[in-house]
């Protein structure tokens, strides 16, 4: 992984009055570019082959310039070009997945957030050590040979639900699993899915205070998954099984949610525990993160995954959510990132939010 010292050397040669926000043209890029523009920062879109035409339909979110590569794997080749434009990379799930972990952590371009989080987030075993060490309730881990009821099988990394499946027996598991990929097996929890969109600031002091900085909860969503969210119109689970039709969990969109207000203390407690443990383990995760949870009918919240960067579910709230509007008007997660970068610049504390 590129050292923090090297990143700060690069920043030392930047024209800080002309910082640019750069990201891959996918996932949550419209929101990131829109938020940066609202905060007066320049924007750079990284794209493959040619600039996506759909940006022409959204002029407020169209980046000021595009940098074209032949493949996402070629992004390291444009590092010097990005540095020459005083770029700060804002990573999202597609950015990291397309480029790859090893290439991303070595990329010699200042990046918003702490790259060390990837070691803990991308490996589901490490992720469990982190979350359970924070005192978080997670679905029980199950060994394949011990499956005797519904379990969720997930592959490692950010895959948008691709390939995930439910198995009820060891034999069913063996029929569907890809043995060439790393996977984890969790008990299936019955309840309602909630995805909580947090923001951790090591710089601000007013708000929900932690041992260092503050925690914000900007919004929440639930994912629309194909074909799991529509499949049961075709029949009962037993009938679908008999017909050889199985649910799949590829994320195709997101819908907005609010939680009953009595759950907010518990929701913030979860975010607080996760951040405090991250500070102990690897110096803290900076900026946006998402706790992916199931709320049971006993109002217990079980966390089955964490995404330690901006998630696509925040795209619903381009002009604010019922929660972020109580922090600042028209506040998206993309805009909140731009605000944090500007604050760090003004207080000469970019070393606290960049890696």
Automatic annotation (TrEMBL):
<protein>
    <recommendedName>
        <fullName>5-formaminoimidazole-4-carboxamide-1-(beta)-D-ribofuranosyl 5'-monophosphate synthetase</fullName>
        <ecNumber>6.3.4.23</ecNumber>
    </recommendedName>
</protein>
<keyword id="KW-0479">Metal-binding</keyword>
<dbReference type="InterPro" id="IPR011761">
    <property type="entry name" value="ATP-grasp"/>
</dbReference>
<dbReference type="Pfam" id="PF06973">
    <property type="entry name" value="DUF1297"/>
</dbReference>
<dbReference type="GO" id="GO:0016879">
    <property type="term" value="F:ligase activity, forming carbon-nitrogen bonds"/>
</dbReference>
<feature type="domain" description="ATP-grasp">
    <location>
        <begin position="101"/>
        <end position="332"/>
    </location>
</feature>
<feature type="binding site">
    <location>
        <position position="94"/>
    </location>
    <ligand>
        <name>5-amino-1-(5-phospho-beta-D-ribosyl)imidazole-4-carboxamide</name>
    </ligand>
</feature>
<dbReference type="InterPro" id="IPR016185">
    <property type="entry name" value="PreATP-grasp_dom_sf"/>
</dbReference>
<keyword id="KW-0067">ATP-binding</keyword>
<keyword id="KW-0547">Nucleotide-binding</keyword>
<dbReference type="GO" id="GO:0000287">
    <property type="term" value="F:magnesium ion binding"/>
</dbReference>
<keyword id="KW-0436">Ligase</keyword>
<feature type="binding site">
    <location>
        <position position="27"/>
    </location>
    <ligand>
        <name>5-amino-1-(5-phospho-beta-D-ribosyl)imidazole-4-carboxamide</name>
    </ligand>
</feature>
<keyword id="KW-0464">Manganese</keyword>
<dbReference type="Pfam" id="PF06849">
    <property type="entry name" value="DUF1246"/>
</dbReference>
<feature type="binding site">
    <location>
        <position position="225"/>
    </location>
    <ligand>
        <name>ATP</name>
    </ligand>
</feature>
<dbReference type="InterPro" id="IPR009720">
    <property type="entry name" value="IMP_biosynth_PurP_C"/>
</dbReference>
<dbReference type="GO" id="GO:0006189">
    <property type="term" value="P:'de novo' IMP biosynthetic process"/>
</dbReference>
<dbReference type="InterPro" id="IPR010672">
    <property type="entry name" value="IMP_biosynth_PurP_N"/>
</dbReference>
<dbReference type="InterPro" id="IPR013815">
    <property type="entry name" value="ATP_grasp_subdomain_1"/>
</dbReference>
<feature type="binding site">
    <location>
        <position position="254"/>
    </location>
    <ligand>
        <name>5-amino-1-(5-phospho-beta-D-ribosyl)imidazole-4-carboxamide</name>
    </ligand>
</feature>
<dbReference type="InterPro" id="IPR023656">
    <property type="entry name" value="IMP_biosynth_PurP"/>
</dbReference>
<comment type="similarity">
    <text>Belongs to the phosphohexose mutase family.</text>
</comment>
<dbReference type="GO" id="GO:0005524">
    <property type="term" value="F:ATP binding"/>
</dbReference>
<comment type="function">
    <text>Catalyzes the ATP- and formate-dependent formylation of 5-aminoimidazole-4-carboxamide-1-beta-d-ribofuranosyl 5'-monophosphate (AICAR) to 5-formaminoimidazole-4-carboxamide-1-beta-d-ribofuranosyl 5'-monophosphate (FAICAR) in the absence of folates.</text>
</comment>
<comment type="pathway">
    <text>Purine metabolism; IMP biosynthesis via de novo pathway; 5-formamido-1-(5-phospho-D-ribosyl)imidazole-4-carboxamide from 5-amino-1-(5-phospho-D-ribosyl)imidazole-4-carboxamide (formate route): step 1/1.</text>
</comment>
<keyword id="KW-0658">Purine biosynthesis</keyword>
<keyword id="KW-0460">Magnesium</keyword>
């Amino acid at each position: 992984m590129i050292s923090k010292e090297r990143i700060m050397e690069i920043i030392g040669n930047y024209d800080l009055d002309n910082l640019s926000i750069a990201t891959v043209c996918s996932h949550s890029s419209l929101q990131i570019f829109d938020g940066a523009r609202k905060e007066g920062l320049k924007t750079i879109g990284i794209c493959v082959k040619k600039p996506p035409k759909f940006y022409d339909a959204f002029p407020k979110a169209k980046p000021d310039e595009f940098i074209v590569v032949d493949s996402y794997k070629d992004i390291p080749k444009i590092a010097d070009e990005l540095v020459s434009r005083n770029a700060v990379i804002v990573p999202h799930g597609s950015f990291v997945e397309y480029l790859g972990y090893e290439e991303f952590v070595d990329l010699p371009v200042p990046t918003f957030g702490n790259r060390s989080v990837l070691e803990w987030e991308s490996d589901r075993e490490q992720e469990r050590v982190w979350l359970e060490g924070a005192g978080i309730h997670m679905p029980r881990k199950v060994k394949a040979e011990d499956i005797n009821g519904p379990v969720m099988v997930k592959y490692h990394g950010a895959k948008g639900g691709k390939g995930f499946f439910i198995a009820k027996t060891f034999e069913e598991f063996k029929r569907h699993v890809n043995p060439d990929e790393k996977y984890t097996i969790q008990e299936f929890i019955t309840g309602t899915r909630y995805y909580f969109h947090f923001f951790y600031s090591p710089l601000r002091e007013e708000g929900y205070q932690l041992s260092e900085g503050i925690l914000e909860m900007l919004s929440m969503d639930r994912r629309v998954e194909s074909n799991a969210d529509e499949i049961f119109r075709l029949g009962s689970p037993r009938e679908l099984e008999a017909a050889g039709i199985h649910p799949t969990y590829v994320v195709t969109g997101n819908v907005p949610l609010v939680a009953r207000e009595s759950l907010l203390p518990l929701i913030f407690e979860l975010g607080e525990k996760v951040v405090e443990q991250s500070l102990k383990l690897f110096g803290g995760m900076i900026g946006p993160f998402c706790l992916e949870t199931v709320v049971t009918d006993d109002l217990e919240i079980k966390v089955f995954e964490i995404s330690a960067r901006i998630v696509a579910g925040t795209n619903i709230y381009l002009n604010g959510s019922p929660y972020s509007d109580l922090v600042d008007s028209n506040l998206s997660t993309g805009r909140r990132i731009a605000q944090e970068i500007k604050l760090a610049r003004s207080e000469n504390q970019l070393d606290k939010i960049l890696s």
